[in-house]
Design brief:
Elements lengths: L15 H18 L3 H17 L3 H7 L1 H11 L2 H14 L1
Helix pairs in contact: 1-5, 4-5
């Protein structure tokens, strides 16, 4: 099999990339606030996973879904939590 494989072919017309970027943009607020050591770790792992393994934001979010969900609930960030859960239900 030659060429690249698009593992998101079933997500055609779902805007998964834009939706993932929106969630990451909202998570950036938590990363910048640095109120929990996890956020620095998450930012570092995101960079590593993207650069070294070629993973996109949807996959990075999926890798940390339970922790992200818990922290967003604890912080009362229900809007970002809803966006994350929508990604989970529709695209993960």
């Amino acid at each position: 099999m030659s060429g690249s494989f698009d593992r998101y072919v079933s997500f055609k017309n779902c805007d998964w990339k834009v939706r993932s970027e929106r969630v990451m943009a909202r998570l950036q607020r938590h990363i910048d606030a640095a109120e929990n050591p996890f956020w620095a770790y998450f930012a570092q792992k995101r960079t590593e996973l993207r650069e070294k393994q070629g993973l996109d934001d949807l996959r990075v979010l999926h890798n940390y879904l339970p922790t992200l969900r818990e922290l967003l609930e604890d912080n009362g960030d229900l809007e970002t939590l809803a966006m994350l859960e929508e990604l989970e239900v529709n695209l993960m």
